[in-house]
Amino acid sequence: MNNPAYLKNALPGVLQLAPYQPGMPLEELQRRLGVKDAIKLASNENPLGASPAVCEMLAATARGELSRYPDGGGFRLKKKLAAYHGVDADCITLGNGSNDLLEFVSRVFLGPGRAALFSQYAFAVYSIATQAQNAEAIVVPALPRDHASMPMGHDLEGFARELRDDVAAVFIANPNNPTGTWLAPEQIEAFLEEVPEQVVVVLDEAYFDYQAPALRTDSRALLSRYPNLLVTRTFSKVYGLASLRVGYGLSHPSLADLLNRVRQPFNNNSLALLAAELALEDQDFVRKSVELNTRELARMTAEVHALGLKTLPSQANFLTIDFGRDASPIHQGLLERGVIVRPMGSYKMPDFIRVSIGTGEENSRFINTLKDILKMSSGA
Ligand SMILES: *Cc1c(COP(=O)(O)O)cnc(C)c1O
């Protein structure tokens, strides 16, 4: 079975796909090193866990819910999200993580002869969702590495220049992963003005809550003006529910209707739906998580700069460090010392490492370990 016959029938885009590389699981590294105190700062997860209300509910209800199908319409969660965002419930599409929304877009709008537009160094799922549909990916060069204010950020003027007739979808991450860079509201609005109405623009706001309020784009206000806009949000980051897989889209009802047609009817399980409802109500937990992140991101940035290293500007829950040379020995050194961070080779950024902002203790462990490694490699 080295070359099964059905391979030649697989869509060319799928054959050329490089699978998404998840971060190494903590247990795996602990097993390899034979230690119990390794830490994981590799997947932009919430170091505080999830709201205590969610954890209690899961323990209490798991037994009774397992045999029943979930509410396929996500009625209660949608109602709460609608109230939270001040939109009608029919503007909402629920996803199994916000990644699901990106796939809905590709399934509805992309295919052979169609193209999707996104930035170099953008979130990996945009190219996977595009290629899997056998559509063409137009990758817009990012701003240069030495750009004064937003190194390696999205270049929306470049996006506008690439809007060919066959472009059916545009993916914008704000803030972007893996760079942490963001766009000003005026830039986003100017771009939306240029986009033909038949092109769907996805504004991926997975890190919205971590952004300083003054830098945020009021995407909800844009929704009423641009029926071709889809805003995506997730419960995976600041709400701390990455394992349960809940994300959603906000859009004009007719766009939501199209996306819902390709959605699996039970794409969110019952416990995930309940957890998301409770998590949404616990805005205290969100505030606490954001405060920790804001404080620790500033401290980590200062400490990394004090080591003579550069960082990309970040408004997210991670920091992307520029080592100015191949960072894989650093990544390896961190791993050997029980610290998992994300190497950037698969993003074609081999000189960089992305470190998620953890608790104060985890971040100090990262900084001290990095110091040790740098000292050793400079022969001091
Ligand atoms: C983490 C992340 C997501 C969220 O993915 P989920 O499927 O909701 O867990 C979406 N977009 C970007 C840019 C991300 O970094």
Automatic annotation (TrEMBL):
Its EC number is 2.6.1.9. Transmembrane segments: none annotated. Keywords: Amino-acid biosynthesis, Aminotransferase, Histidine biosynthesis, Pyridoxal phosphate, Transferase. Pfam families: Aminotran_1_2 (PF00155). Its cofactor is pyridoxal 5'-phosphate. Homodimer. This is Histidinol-phosphate aminotransferase. It comes from Banduia mediterranea. The lineage of its organism: Bacteria, Pseudomonadati, Pseudomonadota, Gammaproteobacteria, Nevskiales.
